[in-house]
């Protein structure tokens, strides 16, 4: 807003970052993360001790150079992984929304923006809408996981501003509360010149992450951007995660360090005894201060035995994990072709953690379900339509997937034939189809000659589209009527039907409650596995300190726990409660920005790259395109990584222990002087690090099988088989052209054995019906029966019946 007074409040930009490191914070944070590892801390201590000439029996750089190399390799790996996070953040931050910026910035970073059916990239106080009664409808699945439509209503003071000229002359100021994490609360005041102050509440705010639905455009003032938005206020700081195997390895290293201290202590005592026995003048070069010699010898033996703890373990693990991450990225069975999305390991430090997951926390909307429904089957007057028992066995899965939403999956011609032939059930069929086209909360919108149904839920959208495919087309809605149009073959005129939503809702609710009560009574008579369902309001009290433990015990006694209408912070609190009190590996998976908190809190976070933005993917440890891919990620890659990493760790410990058993035997059995001298030459130590593991691995037959036989067999199958037995169309055409033969004369045969020339075969391939998946691609989501149910529990908003009655689709919408 414009004005002359200065503002002292500094507003942040709209940039959001989910990366672990920055340019200035990388070095200190990376070193802190590395020093947390017991092995790195130990070898740093050894490297410092080796700089003391009178103490170290080895060179000054014997440990320092390998340690620097290990840290360098780990640093390069972290830089590569964090660069991918920065790149994904830039994709989100620089993403352009469908809409226009009315006044790019007017006063001290206060924006007025104009949006049109887009994902809000900032929180804004709305001024005016295109819809009746200055209302718009938002879907907040990114915030609280709900696909329910929530109603937002503009201020009556500014609702009449419908043109650029009126908005350009606005002058005043907006006062609001500071940034906070409360999604359902907002307090502010709009002070326009020559007008009384107007209070602002949650009904007048579009939060970052919300999506406009059933609304052509809105005009608003930006109040929160970037990390000040409620979405980011509910997110948590990206943690530095460590796997359980790494923690166990640290404990094993501490045990080895204890053994090393015992060995050094015994050797120091032996050296002190030997020095005391050899105090004659022949040993004039030995110091007579026994206590000082003891401590010098102790440090010397610690340095001498330091390789009992394998310094190569860390760099070996880094290489193994990085390779395992590449295997995940290269897995073609977790590649989703519809959106060209492969699986991606955003961090390689948690590969083995995937194989130990005990508790799984999953978002529902968009993760477990896609909110896609098809009208396939119905029963009218005791007759079932839409089933094809004779075709079920013959139709493949691809045939079912090829059914688009425009050509509804309901393809039983018997229903239409019964109407045309005046079957005795014809009146019931017409009444049934009329109810399908009338009894709903769908809003029709016209784009040219096409009607687009903005459904209140997926089932409503499927029913309305099903009625349309059968001849009853829902065309318009007014505040007092619903208009449908019947196709001429039914001999029905266009007519108007009244719709009473309230009575229908009450009857449906009572019928549902009656059914549930009867089933509940039956269930109480027998022992069943229990599930717990709890909403966000109740969860607020269940997570309080007094009853938290009781709630956890109750939840753990159930087979499944379902939490509905919960905030992002509550999701992360639930995961954190189980993570701390149960001491089990947890995994959280989600696809929306409201899942970021629990994804970062869990031991392992998995993001699904879908239509709800990239926030969950950018904040996750692993990203996949479909929930079904989680099975292979956990049971194949996770289990294999856990098995391989643990064997690698044990093998590294084994080879070093074997080496230093020889060192101790040489020290005690051969010399018997307990001198702090390295009896194994550096060449032996260096070669043992590389040759000892190599010989052991090369003795295994599976190594040679995987190195030579398996790749050779795969190449033979791919190259020889496909080039001779199963040639592609392109390869055959290229071969015919190379032989200077007319490709049109080439004779092929189709699946039924009929002969086809090459061009006919090409046409059948080009013009065949391409199956379209009902997956999560953007192109599909725009046409599927994907609806949004109106929320009944929002405080201070209009009821659903008023929402439906306020619509008048026959009225001309104002344009900017």
Walk me through the structure.
Residues 618-665 form the P-type ATPase C-terminal domain. Belongs to the cation transport ATPase (P-type) (TC 3.A.3) family. Type IV subfamily. The active site is at 363 (4-aspartylphosphate intermediate). InterPro entries: ATPase_P-typ_cyto_dom_N, ATPase_P-typ_P_site, ATPase_P-typ_TM_dom_sf, ATPase_P-typ_transduc_dom_A_sf, HAD-like_sf, HAD_sf, P-type_ATPase_IV, P-type_ATPase_N. Its cofactor is Mg(2+). The protein is of the alpha+beta class. Among the domains are: 96-233 and 794-802, Calcium-transporting ATPase, cytoplasmic transduction domain A (Distorted Sandwich), CATH 2.70.150; 355-369 and 522-631, Rossmann fold (3-Layer(aba) Sandwich); 378-507, no CATH class; 684-717, no CATH class. The protein is built from 27 helices and 27 strands. The strands form nine sheets. It has a five-stranded antiparallel β-sheet, with no helix packed on it. A five-stranded mixed β-sheet has the order 12-25-24-23-13. Strand 14 (378-380) and strand 15 form a beta hairpin. The longest helix is centred in the C-terminal third of the chain and has 42 residues, at 630-671. The radius of gyration is 35 Å and the shape is elongated. It starts with 25 loop residues before the first helix and ends in a 10-residue tail after the last helix. Mean pLDDT is 71; it is low at 1-8, 98-119, 389-407, 488-510, 741-756 and 758-793.
């Amino acid at each position: 807003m414009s004005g002359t007074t200065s503002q002292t409040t500094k507003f942040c930009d709209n940039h959001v970052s989910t990366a672990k490191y920055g340019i200035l914070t990388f070095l200190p944070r990376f070193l802190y993360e590395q020093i947390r590892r017991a092995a790195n801390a130990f070898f740093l201590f050894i490297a410092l001790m080796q700089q003391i000439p009178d103490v170290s029996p080895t060179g000054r750089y014997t440990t320092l150079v390998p340690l620097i190399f290990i840290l360098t390799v780990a640093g390069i790996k972290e830089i590569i992984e964090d660069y991918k996070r920065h790149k994904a953040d830039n994709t989100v931050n620089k993403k352009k929304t469908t809409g226009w910026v009315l006044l790019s910035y007017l006063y001290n970073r206060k924006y007025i923006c104009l949006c049109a059916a887009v994902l809000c990239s900032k929180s804004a106080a709305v001024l005016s809408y295109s819809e009746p009664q200055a209302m718009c409808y938002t879907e907040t699945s990114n915030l609280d996981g709900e696909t329910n439509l929530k109603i937002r209503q503009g201020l009556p003071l500014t609702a009449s501003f419908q043109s650029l000229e009126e908005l350009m002359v606005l002058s005043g100021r907006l006062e609001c509360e500071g940034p906070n994490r409360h999604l359902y609360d907002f307090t502010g005041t709009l002070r326009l010149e020559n007008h009384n102050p107007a209070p602002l509440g949650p009904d007048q705010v579009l939060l970052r992450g919300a999506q406009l639905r059933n609304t052509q455009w809105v005009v608003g003032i930006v109040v929160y951007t970037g990390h000040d938005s409620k979405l980011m206020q509910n997110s948590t700081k990206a943690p530095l995660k460590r796997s359980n195997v790494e923690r166990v390895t640290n404990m094993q290293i501490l045990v080895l360090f204890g053994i090393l201290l015992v060995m050094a202590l015994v050797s120091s005592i032996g050296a002190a005894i030997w020095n005391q026995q050899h105090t004659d003048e022949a040993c004039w070069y030995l110091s007579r201060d026994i206590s000082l010699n003891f401590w010098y010898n102790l440090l010397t033996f610690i340095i001498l035995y330091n390789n009992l703890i394998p310094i190569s373990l860390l760099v070996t693990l880094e290489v193994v994990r990085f390779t395992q991450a590449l295997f995940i990225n290269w897995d073609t069975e977790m590649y989703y072709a519809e959106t060209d999305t492969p699986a991606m390991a955003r961090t390689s430090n948690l590969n083995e953690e995937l194989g130990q997951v005990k508790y799984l926390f999953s978002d529902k909307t968009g993760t477990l379900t896609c909110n896609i429904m098809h009208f396939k089957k119905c029963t009218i007057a005791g007759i079932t339509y839409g089933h094809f028992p004779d075709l079920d066995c013959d139709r493949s899965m691809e045939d079912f997937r090829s059914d688009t939403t425009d050509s509804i999956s309901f393809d039983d011609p018997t229903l239409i034939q019964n109407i045309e032939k005046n079957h005795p059930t014809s009146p019931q069929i017409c009444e049934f189809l009329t109810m399908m086209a009338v009894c709903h909360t769908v809003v029709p919108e016209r784009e040219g000659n096409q009607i687009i149904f903005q459904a209140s839920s997926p089932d409503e959208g499927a029913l309305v589209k099903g009625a349309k495919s059968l001849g009853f087309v829902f065309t318009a809605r007014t505040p007092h009527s619903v208009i449908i149009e019947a196709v001429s073959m039914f001999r029905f005129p266009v007519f108007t039907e009244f719709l009473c939503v309230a009575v229908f809702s009450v009857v449906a609710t009572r019928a549902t409650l009656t059914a549930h009560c009867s089933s509940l009574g039956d269930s109480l008579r027998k022992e069943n596995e229990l599930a717990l369902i709890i909403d966000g309001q109740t969860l607020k009290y269940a997570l309080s300190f007094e009853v938290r433990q009781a709630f956890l015990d109750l939840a753990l006694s159930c087979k499944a726990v379902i939490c509905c209408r919960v905030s992002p912070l509550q999701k992360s609190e639930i995961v954190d409660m189980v993570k701390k009190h149960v001491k089990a590996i947890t995994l959280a998976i989600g696809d929306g920005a409201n899942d970021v908190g629990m994804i970062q809190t869990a031991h392992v976070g998995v993001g699904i790259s879908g239509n709800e933005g990239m926030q969950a993917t950018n904040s996750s440890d692993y990203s996949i395109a479909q929930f079904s891919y989680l099975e292979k990620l956990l049971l194949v890659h996770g289990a294999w990584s856990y098995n391989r990493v643990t064997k690698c760790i044990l093998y590294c410990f084994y080879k070093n222990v074997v080496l230093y058993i020889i060192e101790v035997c040489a020290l005690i059995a051969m010399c018997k002087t307990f001198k702090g001298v390295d009896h194994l030459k550096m060449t032996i130590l260096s070669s043992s690090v590389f040759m000892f593991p190599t010989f052991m691995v090369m003795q295994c037959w599976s190594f040679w099988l995987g190195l030579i036989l398996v790749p050779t067999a795969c190449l033979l199958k791919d190259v020889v088989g496909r080039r001779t037995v199963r040639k592609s169309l392109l390869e055959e055409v290229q071969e015919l052209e190379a032989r200077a033969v007319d490709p049109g004369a080439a004779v092929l045969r189709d699946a039924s054995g009929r002969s086809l020339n090459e061009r006919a075969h090409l046409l059948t391939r080009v013009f065949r019906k391409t199956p379209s998946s009902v997956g999560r691609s953007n192109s599909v989501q725009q046409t599927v029966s994907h609806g949004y149910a109106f929320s009944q529990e929002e405080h201070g908003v209009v009821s659903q019946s008023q929402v439906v009655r306020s619509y008048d689709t026959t009225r001309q919408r104002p344009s900017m």
